[in-house]
Amino acid sequence: MAETTETFELEIVTPERQVVKDRATEVQIPGSNGYLGILPGHAPLITELGIGEITYKHQGVSTELCVCWGFAEVLPDKVTILAEAAERAESSHPAHRAAHRAAVGRWPP
Q: What is the share, in percent, of the chain residues with pLDDT greater than 90?
Protein backbone atom coordinates (compact mmCIF):
# COMPACT_ATOMS: atom_id res chain seq x y z
CA MET A 1 0.00 0.00 0.00
CA ALA A 2 2.95 2.37 0.60
CA GLU A 3 3.66 2.14 -3.17
CA THR A 4 0.50 4.12 -3.99
CA THR A 5 1.12 6.94 -1.49
CA GLU A 6 4.77 7.44 -2.43
CA THR A 7 4.28 7.16 -6.19
CA PHE A 8 1.84 8.25 -8.85
CA GLU A 9 0.74 6.83 -12.18
CA LEU A 10 2.55 8.27 -15.21
CA GLU A 11 1.11 7.89 -18.69
CA ILE A 12 2.68 9.38 -21.82
CA VAL A 13 0.85 9.01 -25.13
CA THR A 14 1.25 10.31 -28.67
CA PRO A 15 -1.27 10.17 -31.53
CA GLU A 16 0.44 6.95 -32.67
CA ARG A 17 0.93 4.98 -29.44
CA GLN A 18 1.24 4.75 -25.68
CA VAL A 19 4.90 5.44 -24.89
CA VAL A 20 4.89 5.03 -21.09
CA LYS A 21 2.51 3.58 -18.52
CA ASP A 22 4.44 3.29 -15.26
CA ARG A 23 4.60 4.47 -11.68
CA ALA A 24 6.94 7.27 -10.67
CA THR A 25 8.26 8.91 -7.53
CA GLU A 26 8.95 12.16 -9.42
CA VAL A 27 8.85 13.58 -12.93
CA GLN A 28 10.38 16.65 -14.60
CA ILE A 29 8.44 17.95 -17.59
CA PRO A 30 9.21 20.79 -20.03
CA GLY A 31 6.39 23.28 -19.59
CA SER A 32 5.93 26.18 -21.98
CA ASN A 33 7.52 28.54 -19.42
CA GLY A 34 10.19 26.23 -18.04
CA TYR A 35 10.55 22.85 -16.39
CA LEU A 36 8.08 21.62 -13.77
CA GLY A 37 8.94 19.17 -11.02
CA ILE A 38 6.07 16.91 -10.00
CA LEU A 39 5.93 14.79 -6.83
CA PRO A 40 3.14 12.58 -5.45
CA GLY A 41 0.26 14.66 -4.12
CA HIS A 42 0.98 17.64 -6.43
CA ALA A 43 -1.83 20.18 -6.80
CA PRO A 44 -3.95 19.63 -9.92
CA LEU A 45 -2.96 21.61 -13.01
CA ILE A 46 -2.95 21.52 -16.79
CA THR A 47 0.03 22.90 -18.67
CA GLU A 48 1.28 23.21 -22.22
CA LEU A 49 4.46 21.33 -23.08
CA GLY A 50 7.37 22.63 -25.10
CA ILE A 51 10.31 20.80 -26.61
CA GLY A 52 12.53 19.12 -24.06
CA GLU A 53 13.26 16.06 -22.00
CA ILE A 54 10.96 14.30 -19.59
CA THR A 55 12.81 12.61 -16.77
CA TYR A 56 11.05 10.36 -14.31
CA LYS A 57 12.23 8.16 -11.46
CA HIS A 58 10.85 4.91 -10.12
CA GLN A 59 12.56 2.57 -7.65
CA GLY A 60 15.76 4.62 -7.95
CA VAL A 61 15.96 4.25 -11.74
CA SER A 62 15.86 7.41 -13.86
CA THR A 63 14.31 7.26 -17.35
CA GLU A 64 14.56 10.00 -19.99
CA LEU A 65 12.34 10.72 -22.96
CA CYS A 66 12.51 13.34 -25.68
CA VAL A 67 9.21 15.17 -26.12
CA CYS A 68 7.88 17.77 -28.52
CA TRP A 69 4.79 19.84 -27.81
CA GLY A 70 1.58 18.77 -26.16
CA PHE A 71 -0.21 19.05 -22.85
CA ALA A 72 0.13 17.58 -19.37
CA GLU A 73 -2.59 17.00 -16.80
CA VAL A 74 -1.32 16.71 -13.25
CA LEU A 75 -3.49 15.19 -10.53
CA PRO A 76 -2.38 14.21 -7.02
CA ASP A 77 -2.12 10.52 -8.02
CA LYS A 78 -1.64 10.63 -11.81
CA VAL A 79 0.23 12.58 -14.51
CA THR A 80 -1.02 12.23 -18.08
CA ILE A 81 1.07 13.64 -20.91
CA LEU A 82 -0.41 13.99 -24.39
CA ALA A 83 2.53 14.75 -26.67
CA GLU A 84 2.80 15.44 -30.37
CA ALA A 85 5.94 13.27 -30.34
CA ALA A 86 7.76 11.37 -27.59
CA GLU A 87 10.56 8.83 -27.71
CA ARG A 88 12.60 7.06 -25.08
CA ALA A 89 16.12 8.46 -25.13
CA GLU A 90 17.77 5.04 -25.06
CA SER A 91 15.72 3.80 -28.03
CA SER A 92 16.33 6.78 -30.28
CA HIS A 93 19.04 6.84 -32.90
CA PRO A 94 22.10 8.99 -31.99
CA ALA A 95 21.34 11.32 -34.90
CA HIS A 96 17.78 11.79 -33.61
CA ARG A 97 19.08 12.58 -30.11
CA ALA A 98 21.54 15.12 -31.54
CA ALA A 99 18.79 16.80 -33.57
CA HIS A 100 16.51 16.83 -30.53
CA ARG A 101 19.18 18.40 -28.32
CA ALA A 102 19.84 21.03 -31.01
CA ALA A 103 16.12 21.82 -31.14
CA VAL A 104 15.96 22.10 -27.35
CA GLY A 105 18.84 24.57 -27.47
CA ARG A 106 16.88 26.73 -29.93
CA TRP A 107 13.65 26.64 -27.92
CA PRO A 108 11.79 28.86 -27.33
CA PRO A 109 11.86 30.13 -30.93
A: 62
